[in-house]
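Page 47, continued from p. 46.
Same chain as before, 225 aa.
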Amino acid sequence: MSEVRVYSQSGEASGSVTLDESVFGSQVNVPVMHQVVVAQLAAARAGTHSTKHRGEVSGGGKKPWRQKGTGRARQGSTRAPHWTGGGVVFGPRPRDHSVKVPKKMKALALRSALSDRAAAGTIAVIDKWEFSEPSTKAAKALLDKVGVKGSALLVFDAVDEAAVKSFRNMKDCHLILASQLNTYDVLAADWIVFTKRALEQVTEARKAEPSRREKAAAAKGGEKA
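Result:
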């Protein structure tokens, strides 16, 4: 099991914590992560784009000219798609872009993303936020001392107003609660910064359930004992 240092508010190492192998030591499954991220981005689309087909465009009730005798091609309406101002053929219509993804697949993708960051050594743990008042300068200094570089995903165990106000002005920081942790945000950040309590919440909520084979093996072992 891998260990990660725990830092205090001053940026000094105050201990270490062991990452749970079932959450941070899983085999990285890239295809599953890709599928979940695509579904997550699709679900974020509004789907309100719309065009009018020929039946929705106003006007065009009168036939442009008589059917025969003009030497021109017959036309039934000026709202036909090939007329200027006519309807649109196969244009975008309001729709729901969301894609259904099984819960187990989402959980696997998140464990894979966290395991990838753990293997890269880009997970940091802060004991707890202790901002007496909002200070972006102090927040930046803390991340620098911890060694966080590039974009960072800060995972909170609870809403801390002073800490939120300290970090929200930093363009490379994204704040999220432990209960809202998702695959896309993990992969989009270079570093993941947990509070100690948030790490415990994520570990408890994201532990992999034993497979049927493992359950059966455990049951047999219990019977023999």
